[in-house]
Amino acid sequence: MPGIVIVGLQWGDEGKGKISYLLCRDADCVVRFQGGANAGHTVVVEGRRLKFNILPAGSAAGARPCIASGTVVDLDEVFEELEMLKSMGLEARLMISRSASVVLPIHKKLDSRIEEARGGSAVGTTRRGIGPTYSDKALRTGLRIEDLLNPDDLRERLEILKRFHGEEPGDFENLRRMGERIAPYVGDVELYVNDVLDEGGKVVFEGAQGTLLDIDHGTYPYVTSSNTIAGAACTGCGIGPTRISEVIGVAKAYTTRVGAGVFPTEVGGELGERLREVGQEYGTTTGRPRRVGWLDIPLLRYAIRISNVDWIALTKLDVLSGLDKIKICVEYEYDGKILKIAPPAVRLLSRVKPIYEEVKGWEKISEDEWRSIAERGWEALPDEAKAYVELLEDLLGKPIKLISIGADAGMEVER
Ligand code: IMP
Questions:
Q1: What are the pLDDT digits (tens) for 364-396?
Q2: CA 148 to ligand 1 centroid distance, Å
Q3: What is the CATH number of domain 251-414?
Q4: Among 140, 219, 225, 360, which one is least packed by beta carbons within 10 Å?
Q5: In Å, how far are 129, 268, 286, 374, 399 from 414, measured between CA atoms?
Q6: Which residues contact 42 (CB under 8 A, 6 or more apart)?
């Protein structure tokens, strides 16, 4: 009964898409349980770059894609990504929960309006309408997938939304047509996933964003509007906590963040520019340049604890190649005290001073050489790269079982 949860251990963009793809090669289904089209999961399969915003990236490996009730769904995105699955002969297998929330045009407008109202304190959202859709859900004024399936229900829900927002939330006719189009894919995801687990199948729960963007446990208010930690797989999909047999944390070999908010190990200047260019650190969803910095161990310790991570997949190790020295923030200093684990309180976090350890880097490695290393395995990695990974394991107290190089499936080292 393996229920495997994949979570990001930083501020998103850790490379969860490829890890999910790898873990889904023998999975029965793969579930998106929170967030919406604010996510950007990429995997390169046989030279083809596949970008997923709302469907789980693991579906490219043939696992049945499910979109569970905890998500906020942009149907235009779903239809677009279904085309991509169709070209792979996989589209008919999607199952979307009746209870998932629908992102409407008004939500996207509101997302922009609220950001503008925040002025200098703007969160830097993806403007995909995520926050306002979750707000309507919490207010019980939201529209669910099941409402699209019946014109009377749809009209009634839109009327309430219109009275509340004071403007048209979305076009009735357009939404009705979308309802017709999505109907063949609508199902009881929650029951189906429980059945698969009962029958001894393998389910991968593909988390989106990262722990530090969690609305309760992240760096509030500069967070997304859903829970992004492992526990959210239970609430977002309707499975009991004991269904989860393994939690896999995905961490990048350095740190990045899109949007505003605290970032203790941020690196600017030439080095920052280099990491951004080599790592191609530009948002998959919005194209925005990502902020970059050194690996932050106290933050990773915090993220590991919050989701009780079993093992780590370390991504983009290749980006650090060619640096003489690599810095790792091993602890913080705050008010004369040493902190080994990041404090959950964000105001405190914004006042910590990172304490770094410096390790030796390794030579620049070409793509072909990385390919050959991936084929030969762990022993083929440069000694300094192996030392870096082993040091992280020591500092984090968790095994790093998978090392990923770039977005291509096949470019990874398993241990
Ligand atoms: P929202 O989720 O669009 O409301 O954006 C809230 C914050 O989360 C912003 O800082 C976004 O940049 C960030 N964010 C949302 N989704 C992702 C993601 O998939 N990767 C990285 N950052 C994200």
A1: 999 999 999 999 999 999 999 999 999 999 999
A2: 27
A3: 3.90.170.10
A4: 140
A5: 38, 33, 32, 9, 11
A6: 17, 18, 49, 50, 51, 52, 57, 284, 407
Sequence ranges of the domains in the chain: 3-97+185-248, 101-182, 251-414
CB distance 263 to 222 below 8 Å? no
Distance 126 CA to ligand 1 centre (A): 6
pLDDT at 387: 98
Neighbouring residues of 409: CB distance < 8 A, sequence distance ≥ 6: 18, 21, 22, 43, 44, 45
How far apart (Å, rounded) are the C-alpha atoms in residues 331 and 316? 23
Q: How far is the CA of 387 from the centre of ligand 1 (A)?
A: 33
For a pocket test of ligand 1, which of 38, 128, 130, 212 has the largest count of ligand atoms closer than 8 A to its C-beta? 38
Residue 38 has pLDDT above 70, yes or no: yes
| Residue bearing the CA closest to ligand 1, atom 15 | 38
Q: What is the pLDDT of residue 1?
A: 61
pLDDT value of residue 406: 85
Enzyme catalytic residues: 13, 41
Give burial (CB, 10 Å; 0-12/13-18/19+) of 383.
exposed
pLDDT tens, residue by residue, 157-179: 999 999 999 999 999 999 999 99
- What is the 123 CA–ligand 1 centroid distance (Å)? 9
pLDDT in tens, 287-318: 889 999 999 999 999 999 999 999 999 999 99
| Residue nearest (by alpha carbon) to ligand 1 atom 20 | 12
Report the CATH number of the 3-97+185-248 domain.
3.40.440.10
Q: What is the mean pLDDT of the chain?
A: 96
User: In angstroms, what is the span from residue 38 Cα to ligand 1's centroid?
Assistant: 6
- Pocket lined around ligand 1, Cβ cut-off 6 Å: 11-13, 38-40, 123-126, 128, 130-131, 208-209, 213, 222, 224-225, 258-259
Residue nearest to atom 2 of ligand 1 (CA): 224
One of 1.10.300.10, 3.10.50.40, 2.40.50.140, 3.60.15.10 is the CATH number of 101-182, namely 1.10.300.10
